[in-house]
Design a protein that fits this description.
There is one protein chain. By secondary structure, this protein is an alpha/beta fold. The chain has a single domain, classed as 3-Layer(aba) Sandwich (Rossmann fold), CATH 3.40.50.10610. Helices cover about 40% and strands about 25% of the residues. It has six helices and seven strands; from the N terminus they run αβββαβααβββαα. Strands 1, 2, 3, 4, 5, 6 and 7 form a seven-stranded mixed beta sheet that branches. Strand 5 and strand 6 form a beta hairpin. Helix 2 packs across helix 6 and helix 3 packs across helix 4. The chain starts with a helix and ends with a helix.
């Protein structure tokens, strides 16, 4: 084997190892915590319907369901069932149920008897392409609102999946959508009570 062929082989192996290592793209990890909020005092939370800016019609509902389930499983906080949230929203009748005003947040929190409310927006959900490669992606932004003041006390965004360098080089379709969504939500919850 010539030295040129060896050098090209070593370079190709290095590129492939880097591409495999970079798979499962995390994306931006922007997080905001209100320094004046004592997150340890939170005992109950209501998760409002997530807004959906993706092309997938059910993405908001799907990501919200996964978020609620994983939230309830990860911390000792009571998560209000979706039916109760829906009834409270119909009683309070905010102008935009996915983005209430401060006053509407306070009314919803009183109506539901919760400490905080969570809203979310699914920015991207589903299959993405880059050249011949394709993969699944989920990008979501979430906010926690204090039920007494109507102010945002925590917000974060997460993106998981997408076409990696490894997908471009060796093909493959990436991970299934349910795994991508779970990883994005897990990323958010990991940063919730930091």
């Amino acid at each position: 084997m010539s030295w040129k062929l060896r050098a090209m082989t070593v370079a190709l192996i290095a590129v492939l190892m880097t591409a495999v290592h970079c798979g499962g793209h995390r994306g931006a990890r922007a997080t905001y915590h209100d320094a004046n909020m004592d997150f340890g005092l939170i005992q109950s939370v209501a998760v409002l319907p997530f807004d959906n800016l993706s092309l997938s019609g059910k993405a908001g509902e799907t990501v919200r369901d996964v978020f609620m389930t994983m939230l309830q499983a990860s911390v000792e906080i009571y998560v209000i069932p979706p039916g109760e949230v829906r009834r409270a929203v119909s009683r309070v009748q905010p102008e935009d149920p996915k983005a209430p005003t401060e006053e509407e947040f306070i009314n919803l929190a009183k109506n539901l008897e919760v400490d905080v409310l969570i809203t979310g927006t699914v920015l991207e959900y589903g299959e993405v392409r880059s050249g011949a490669a394709e993969s699944n992606v989920c990008s979501v932004s979430v906010q926690m609102i204090d039920g007494q003041t109507g102010r945002v006390v925590w917000s974060a965004s997460a993106t998981r999946g997408g076409v990696s360098a490894g997908d471009r080089l060796v093909g493959g379709g990436g991970q299934p959508m349910n795994i991508i969504v779970s990883k994005a939500v897990e990323d958010l919850l990991d940063r919730l009570f930091q």
